[in-house]
Amino acid sequence: MRLPVLAWALIASSLVVSAQQPPAPKAKPATTKQPASKQVAKSTSSDASKIADIRRLLELTGTKDMVNQMKGTMMAQFRQNAPGMPPGMFDEMMAELKAEDLEESMIPVYANHFTGDDIKHLIAFYESPFGRKVMREMPQIITESNEVGVQWGQGVVTRVAGRWRDQGKITQRAYDQLVNAASTEEEQH
């Protein structure tokens, strides 16, 4: 469970870092009109450059490795939750879960939310010593944050369920089930 959270948290952290960058200056509209074919060619060239930069960003952030780790974890959980699944079907799913496919699907998401300059800022960040430190430290920060969050959630469940039990709104059995479910969740992390 931690690996999917880790992957998305790292992606989200890149969004936070980008938000801290000063906005790129807006390009002024050209005063002379270019033929449509030149505009399309320029757009296609800049789109290709932006896509190449997004691929570089995904490489710098270790997205492919994270996806491959997530794949193993996700499929192990899936196999545990679906014990009757035929082994051949499991193998076929594993073969079709390719990190490259997910990365390609992520490119339009990045392209929709970031300008070409934004992507360049993110690349510069992740290539910097501080960006590399963020990449090194973030997995441990996320692990520790998950542990803190689980403990916090368990405390809330225990307090609220205790009040409801004490007020006669739920039975002791229901209280025990809720508290045990919260404890089981903590053990899984």
Give a description of the structure:
This protein is mostly helical and 189 residues long. The protein folds into two domains: 108 residues, no CATH class; 53 residues. 82% of the residues lie in helices and 0% in strands. The chain is built from eight helices and no strands. Helix 1 crosses helix 7, helix 2 packs across helix 5 and helix 6 packs across helix 7. The radius of gyration is 23 Å and the shape is extended. The N and C termini lie close together (7 Å).
List the helices and strands and how they pair.
Blueprint: H1 2-20, H2 36-60, H3 63-81, H4 87-96, H5 99-113, H6 116-127, H7 129-166, H8 172-188
Number of strands: 0
Radius of gyration, rounded?
23 Å
Query: What general outline do the C-alpha atoms trace?
Result: extended
Class computed from helices, strands and strand pairing: mainly alpha
Strand % is under 5%
Helix and strand run: HHHHHHHH
* Alpha carbon gap, first and last residue: 7 Å
Largest sheet: none
Proportion in helices: over 70%
Whole-number total of structural domains: 2
What's a concise summary of this model?
The chain contains eight helices and no strands. The protein has 189 residues and is mainly alpha-helical.
Fill in the keyword field for this structure.
189 residues; mainly alpha; 2 domains; 8 helices; 82% helix; 0% strand; disordered N terminus
